[in-house]
Structure prediction request, 119 residues.
Amino acid sequence: QVQLVESGGGLVQPGGSLRLSCAASGLTFSLYRMNWYRQAPGKARELVAGISSAGSSPNYADSVKGRFTISRDNSKNTVYLQMNSLKAEDTAVYYCNAQRAVVKIENYWGQGTQVTVSS
Prediction:
């Protein structure tokens, strides 16, 4: 079955950096668009960044542009989210998402990793 396993979350001070990783298995990774979402307490889940199956055309939420970078390594079935200049408002559970729409819409989710930005 499809598994997406996030890692790299934790506690960091404002202005610090973290790198999230999401390792995928059970699917042909190179065929899927990969996204990072986040959900803060009491708020809806929001799209943070996405990248095409080939690793081109990354897109970002306005709130993270210039601070976060999404990348992928199709040889390792892994997508990354480099987060710099972290702010308290970046505190959330971050989820990895694999997406494909050919004959049917496919959406797979990881279990999430907590990122807490606090002094």
The radius of gyration is 14 Å. The first strand starts at residue 3 and ends at 7. The chain has a mean pLDDT of 96. Residues 4 and 24 are 5 Å apart (CA to CA).
